[in-house]
Write a structure and sequence with these properties.
CRO Repressor; four-stranded antiparallel beta sheet; 10 helices; 8 strands; about 55% helix; flat
Length: about 280
């Protein structure tokens, strides 16, 4: 068999085998690879290349690839079951900063210089070690940082605000084509979509992407980037309408001389105000 054909066939076979073996490993991001994972990947790559070029026999190469795939899988399985194996293979977390104090001994264990630590912090927009409550080096080598409570960004929870539940937006138009399944998933139909497009004054063929959020607002992105698509105002208009109704009812209650009507208007204003407060997290997020 000619050398070129042999290399082609062996490379094709190795490619299929490596693809199958990689799928067995499962999904892992590059940032999650431990040193053990890295060494294993390098060895598999070297074995695949050597077998493809005939530097080692096909049978020997297949056996070696199988060993370097099945053995790590067995180690991963044992690591899931037993913490001691997990610590041996993946390593342990190392605390680098504790209550704003740099742990010099742990920094040495992590093989980090002070410049390395500061660089890792700057990547997370932290420029003062005094602002850090805890910093931990993960087994994969990245550094997790928790800021002190008075430095942490404000959230709705810390401000005591209630927020509405958000669901995944559905893409209802892509490349000018209506996605019927996405519309049905939102409980909408073609008539609603065409009505919303008419309100926005946009033709279907001019839309690159359109999405509907959990409250039924339609967001448009047009093919022509020079044209600014109108932003939906449904939630804002509804909230403003509720507040206007509340104000109008309160005005009626103050202006009428009929005590029964005054009571009715005041009670209605209170009900509208309660509804506005309940819907505020959803309408003003």
């Amino acid at each position: 068999m000619p050398d070129v054909l042999r290399v082609f066939l062996s490379s094709a076979g190795i490619f299929v085998l490596v693809l199958f073996l990689v799928r067995l490993f499962g999904k892992r991001q590059n940032s999650q690879l431990t040193f053990f994972d890295f060494v294993n990947v390098v060895v598999i790559g070297v074995l695949a290349g050597a077998t493809s070029l005939g530097l080692i026999g096909i049978i020997e190469g297949f056996i070696a690839l199988a060993v370097w795939t099945l053995f790590p899988m067995a180690v991963y399985w044992a690591a899931i079951k037993y913490k001691a194996v997990r610590d041996l293979v993946q390593g342990k977390e190392i605390v680098l900063i504790n209550h704003g104090k740099i742990m010099e001994d742990n920094l040495l264990k992590a093989r980090l210089t002070p410049e390395d630590l500061l660089s890792q912090l700057r990547r997370r927009n932290v420029f003062k070690t005094a602002d850090v409550e805890f910093a931990v080096m993960e087994p994969a080598g990245d550094v997790s940082v928790m800021l002190k409570k008075d430095i942490q960004p404000a959230t709705a929870k810390t401000l005591g605000l209630n927020t509405g539940q958000e669901s995944v937006p559905q893409t209802v138009i892509m490349d000018g084509v209506i996605m019927d399944e996405a519309l049905a998933a939102m409980g909408l139909n073609m008539g609603w979509l065409h009505t919303e497009l008419k309100k926005a004054g946009v033709a279907l063929e001019n839309i690159f992407l359109a999405q509907v959020d959990s409250v039924g607002q339609l967001y448009l992105d047009l093919f022509d980037d020079a044209i600014q698509a109108p932003q939906p105002q449904t939630k804002e208009l509804l909230y403003a309408t509720l507040k206007q109704c509340e104000a109008a009812l309160e005005t009626y209650a103050l202006s009428t001389l009929n005590q029964e009507a005054k009571k009715m208007y005041g009670q209605s204003a209170g009900e509208v105000a309660a509804a506005a407060r309940e819907l505020e997290p959803l309408l003003k997020r």
